[in-house]
Amino acid sequence: MGGAAVAALVAGGIVVAMVGTLAVLAIFGVRKYVGASKQAEVENSIGYMAKAAASAYERERLATDGEDRAAVERRLCASASRPVPRDPQQTRGKKYMSSRDDWEVDKERDAGFACLRFEMSAPQYYQYRYEATATSFVAGGRGDLDGDGDLSDFRLTGQVHDSSLLISPQILETDPEE
Fold first, then answer.
1. pLDDT (tens digit, 9 = 90+) per residue, 108-148?
2. Contact assessment for residue 93 and residue 123, using Cβ atoms and an 8 Å cutoff
């Protein structure tokens, strides 16, 4: 083999190595982009739930004191009786298609997602929950995007302080890329 042939082989090997490296970087970038777009679902959804909790808190409701006197009261929606979907395994590495009944299970007692007036009509990657006390709430989502059994967790909290509802400016994330 002549020197020109060896040089051509070396140059070809370098080109193949560079193309391979670029392909690996492209796959990594696309995977990261897809994961971020899926995380946007949960971040937008729990942000909307928090805003819905604030709107529900501001709705005027009449309360009686037992002596036929009425007053306007502010209160948080009571907790949802169950998350949607019930089992986080239903979103393990795949989307879940909820029904309107999933979101309206607490409608008769004006609690949970029905009180928040929150529901999802598109397939979802995450399990959603809403938990509340008289003075605080947690809007959250759990998911397993890669299907390995480890769950990511996203939470947005709110707290009543001096008759005002303060919502955390930051979403708390645990293992967001799971």
1. 999 999 999 999 999 999 999 999 999 999 999 999 998 99
2. no
Place of tokens 């929950």: 129
How much helix, strand and coil, in percent to the nearest 5, is found in the chain?
Answer: 40, 25, 35
Question: pTM for this one?
Answer: 0.78
3-state secondary structure of 174: strand
CB 76 within 8 A of CB 134: yes
**DSSP symbol at 108:** G
164 closest CA partner among 58, 26, 85, 86: 58
DSSP 50-95: HHHHHHHHHS-EEEE-SSS-EEEE--PPPPPSS-BSSSGGGGBTS-
All structural domains of the chain with their residue ranges: 3-174
Cα 67 to Cα 56, 63, 70, 74, distances in angstroms: 26, 11, 9, 19
